[in-house]
Amino acid sequence: MPVITYLTTCIFDSGALKQLAGTAKRLGMSRPFIVTDQGIKTAGILGKVEDALGVAPAGVFDETVSNPTEKQVDEATARYKECGADGVIALGGGSSMDLAKAVCLLASHDEPLESYAAITGGAKKIGKVAPLIAIPTTSGTGSEVSVGMIVTMNNGRKETFVSPNLIPATAICDPDLTLGLPPHLTAATGMDAVTHCIEAVLAPSVNPPAEGIGYEGIYRAIGDGWLRKAVKDGSDADARWHMMMASYEGALAFVKGLGGVHALSHAAGRLHEKKLHHGTLNAIFLPHILRFHEGAADAKYARLRQAMGLKPGADLAQAIEELNADIGIPDNLSAIGLTAEDGPGIVDYALKDLAHFGNPKPMSADDYAKVYEIALG
Ligand SMILES: [Fe+2]
């Protein structure tokens, strides 16, 4: 069983879920609190996790919504405290992971959530939090090994929180848990992983090991064809293994930073009533941001072409558009319900997002507005 320690410990393989009981014991967790969502419960995955745990959890919060809110964080934290839990198991996609991280934070810290936001320097206030085991059921977010979480606050802002203390104590990555994921979610989450790798590579910070992992993730997901294979045949266990690895690699890479694609996706994702998938937004914005940054990072673009299996000088943005088309992702924002009226608000929030600061070439409000207008279709 591969056990990798980079950022945190990750037990990674088909069947890794069997390691859950031993992992909880090792972390001193005898009364775990599970954070998950209704889809995971209905799919029978929560039952599998409870079986693997071997003891009844102290409590379960199974109402996580996509793009978790501050209100949900408060509800789940109250539930955690009521049941006398001594740690959290996050089970699901990025939303359950982020909600679980927020519960761990507020279970051990007294100030309001807002005061820990990265953009206002809150990271330094985040000390040791309740232990967390993360079990992803999608391959995209990488939140199981990442330093960050994102919560939509009561004031409407989508806030990023970053601290090494928010990294789960152990990630259990069992690709078999993704075998039932439908093609559209496999595609959308897969493009989140791809975008993490590409934006991490392009971010101007200097971190060659993280950058190298970004290229590797791109090679695995695109160059080696595993994303297309996973979307085409969801029962392909090898494709599921490789996409979960690409997702893991994306998060290892984005310690370097993200960029304009994520700034825009976070800004659009806060429009809760539109129910937009973060990965789908990334996939649609990605080619346009790649066109904007063309010429600002030539050596990196050349290596990205190599990793994607393209000829020297090939159009990266076009290759992403072709990939999107192959895996069934819409080619414009109008198709997913965004409008020209949404533009100014999205641009405004993008400029305040932490990912905005990872652009290889600075982006102004005007630049974002142009990208948005073109992406609208
Ligand atoms: Fe992402």
TrEMBL record:
Protein family (similarity comment):
Belongs to the iron-containing alcohol dehydrogenase family.
Q: Which residues form the Alcohol dehydrogenase iron-type/glycerol dehydrogenase GldA domain?
A: 9-175
GO terms for MF:
alcohol dehydrogenase (NAD+) activity; metal ion binding
The reactions it catalyses are: a primary alcohol + NAD(+) = an aldehyde + NADH + H(+)
Name recorded for this polypeptide = 4-hydroxybutyrate dehydrogenase
Stored InterPro entries: ADH_Fe/GldA, ADH_Fe_C, ADH_Fe_CS, Alcohol_dehydrogenase_Fe
Domain Fe-containing alcohol dehydrogenase-like C-terminal, residue spans: 186-375
